[in-house]
Specification:
Nucleotidyltransferase, domain 5, five-stranded mixed sheet, about 40% helix, alpha/beta, single chain, about 270 residues, two-stranded antiparallel sheet, 10 helices, 2 domains
Length: about 270
Amino acid sequence: MELNLKKPLAFFDIEATGLSIIKDRIVELFILKVNPNGTKESNTWLINPDYPISAEAEQIHGYSNDSLKDKPTFKQVAKEISKFLHNCDLAGYNAIKFDVPMLVEEFLRADIDFDIKKRRLIDVQNIFMKMEQRTLSAAYRFYLQKELKDAHGAEADAMATYEILKAQLDKYENTTFTDKKGTASIPVKNDMDALHEFSSHHRNADLIGQIIFNENDEEVINFGKHKGKKVEEVLKVEPSYYNWVMNSDFPLFTKNLLTNIKLRMKLQ
């Protein structure tokens, strides 16, 4: 089934120096942009991370610091990447937990205002896990009845994700899914709003789910001793909490969100 698009949808995959959203850096980025008229554009960026690549990461993707030393840094190509992603929704495999936060952190470090709020985020892994419980290679085998070659290469993984999403739309076209509240629906349909909603485990306020929205669209802390409490209430009762977050290893996006909430409170 071809995708029903009202704006471009960018399938992308990242290879990185490690798994830390906060500390690690991108070494390879591949983007397949599918346009509403069905045409496709793609691009690959190899990036000098200027940060040590872990032995585990190098073993998976094959890039070393020495092999990337002559490549541009992310900051040097950030505007080019941002322009390529202009007006695009984003899709990937495990993208909501890893690729999207990693990409946004890189843009923030490069002083690029990459607006994520107006973009739908479609995570093929979350659709797959909710419906079948598998990995990317297994998903490729399950939906397409063939083996994924060159797994853990950014281009191969992103292209596989694109193929899987189309196959998911075919397979689950009339399948009813019942959520934890007992609400039945057909969420896997050729509509980016529905796929965005079904891809999400929570309605995240930040990008990694440490701050989420409650049913009243209020920001709520989703970790630690204040889990389940509204951010504004915590900042009122414990003002030092803000400084603790600012001085700890939290993503820049999360810190910026907390700062905006604090500034909003002053204007109330």
